[in-house]
Amino acid sequence: MPRLLPLFPLQMVVFPRTHLPLHIFENRYKEMVAEAIAEKSEFGVVLTKDDGIMNAGCTVLVEKVLTTYPDGRMDIVTRGARRFEILSLNLDKEYLRGEVEFFNDEDTAEVPLDLRAQVLKSFGAMLEASESTFIPEPVLSDPQLSFQLAQAVNDVAFQSVILRNRSETDRLRQLSQFLHQYVPRLKHTEKMKQLAPLNGFGHKPAGL
Question: Could you tell me where in the chain the CATH 2.30.130.40 domains are found?
């Protein structure tokens, strides 16, 4: 029997080598995370949908326990590890488990330098337009840089597409196209936040 992977359905996506802080409060997930900590084992984070869960996700390892509360709740920091596809689900425990197949990139061709530069430029523009101070600087030596960049994008549907893509070049192309539209929308949103307390008046940028 293959080992069943515990699954944690969330309205978020995590990528390999990126961090995800979690507050664990449901009894079933207290049990799941406690077992993962004791056994130093992985559990899988999968994106929830209206009609269930996505069939692909990423495992995480508990990197640090920040706080343990008297009732068993926990604040933890996890780190993404391996991507997987779900082959079947198991409901024998209180929490969901799945038989999974792990995967990595199939296209390992070198990324064009001009594409990489363009995406980093667009990413920089996104950082400038965003008021968030919680976006970490990307580690440029990471051969799967797209995962770090996508983690900063506030769009789980797009993040899910990036997670399942098995080509770094394709992922960066998708990011380039996405950021080309996303950054102007973000700038407009931030502008509206500034104008709303004054008079509530603003214009959409051209083309939107």
Answer: 5-103
CA terminus-to-terminus distance, the chain: 53
> Which CATH code fits 5-103?
2.30.130.40
- pLDDT tens digits, 30-49: 999 999 999 999 999 999 98
Asked if 41 and 132 count as a contact pair (C-beta separation under 8 A), the reply is no
Q: What is the SS3 assignment for 149?
A: helix
DSSP string, 44-102: EEEEEETTEEEEEEEEEEEEEEEEE-TTS-EEEEEEEEEEEEEEEEE-SSSS-EEEEEE
pTM of the model: 0.86
Distance (Å, whole) CA 25 – CA 125: 37
Assigned token pair, 206 = 């051209």
